[in-house]
Design brief:
Layout lengths: L1 H6 L3 H47 L2 E4 L3 E4 L8 E10 L2 H9 L1 H13 L3 H4 L2 H16 L6 H8 L7 H9 L3 E11 L1
Antiparallel strand pairs: 1-3, 2-3, 3-4
Helix pairs in contact: 4-6
């Protein structure tokens, strides 16, 4: 019986220790959960905004095949070879540009063929050409001059307010020249 008396007090302290450890673990888990929730609420919104900003900042580049075009110089013996890469807002825009690529290439060829070698040899001439190419690429997508023309032709739902919205959100960000040879 003596052994029963000594064994009986031993389990009580063990249960008390287990209970204290369980309470500590529970408090730690609750604290970790609260901290994780706080991070998800506060940090998560920053991550989403940062992710959106990163997505908005990271463009999609679409290289076009090189173009060789006769220039508008007297005599017609000058030409230019141009490599163009388009900086677009996203992959969706790149897919749309690929769908309209024959029309876009035609517009670019016409724009370039109207220039002279002297004009294209200057920085300003290249910048004007880049702006015109940007307009040619954006037009079939519903941005720029083609949209204005539709509005003038009487398409009422493509009014001035819609045109301003689209002009501000042009997904064709820049036209970059990867090569530019005038001969």
């Amino acid at each position: 019986m003596n052994s029963d008396a000594t064994s009986s007090p031993a389990p009580a302290p063990a249960r008390g220790k287990k209970l204290i450890i369980a309470v500590i673990v529970l408090i730690l888990l609750l604290a970790a959960g609260a901290y994780a929730l706080l991070l998800m609420r506060h940090g998560g919104s920053d991550d989403e905004e940062g992710g959106r900003a990163a997505a908005a900042v990271l463009p999609t580049f679409l290289p076009l095949e090189s173009l060789v075009v006769n220039l508008a110089d007297p005599g017609g013996d000058r030409f230019v070879q141009i490599g163009i890469t388009l900086e677009l807002a996203d992959e969706k825009t790149a897919s749309l540009v690929k769908q309209y690529l024959p029309s876009i290439r035609n517009g670019i060829l016409i724009q370039v063929s109207q220039r002279t070698a002297d004009e294209l040899l200057t920085r300003e001439g290249k910048e004007r050409l880049a702006a015109d190419v940007q307009a040619e690429v954006a037009a079939p997508l519903g941005y720029g001059p083609l949209r204005k023309k539709r509005a003038q032709d009487g398409d009422e739902d493509e009014g001035e307010q819609g045109s301003r919205k689209k002009a501000a959100a042009n997904p064709v960000r820049r036209v970059l020249f990867s090569s530019f040879i005038v001969q």
